[in-house]
Specification:
Oligomer: single chain
Strand content: 5-15%
Radius of gyration: 13 Å
Order of helices and strands: EEHHEHEH
Length: 93
């Protein structure tokens, strides 16, 4: 298990890396969002709808937050790890 607690049931895992230490390009990350079925939902909700990124402890979540901002989303927040998100948004468990 990654640091930070058990996975949030409402989250979708879209990794940022191709391999250990090798980040995806922004286009590759967007393609993975599309393949996971997330992109269409994000487009329907609009670029100002809230998005919370997270990972085990917040490092990759921060990178995902930056990537989402570069993709045009304006209300993106790095939640840290799953337990950090639960602490402020228990409804997302």
């Amino acid at each position: 298990m990654d640091m930070g607690g058990e996975k949030l049931s409402s989250s979708v895992n879209v990794p940022l890396n191709k391999a250990k230490g090798v980040n995806k390009t922004l286009d590759e990350f967007k393609a993975d969002l599309e393949a996971a079925g997330v992109w269409a939902t994000l487009e329907q909700r609009g670029t100002d709808a809230p998005i919370i990124t997270h990972c085990g402890a917040g490092g990759r979540g921060g990178k995902a937050c930056d990537a989402m901002t570069k993709l045009g989303f304006t209300n993106v927040h790095n939640g840290g790890g799953p337990d950090d998100v639960r602490a402020v948004r228990p409804d997302l468990s």
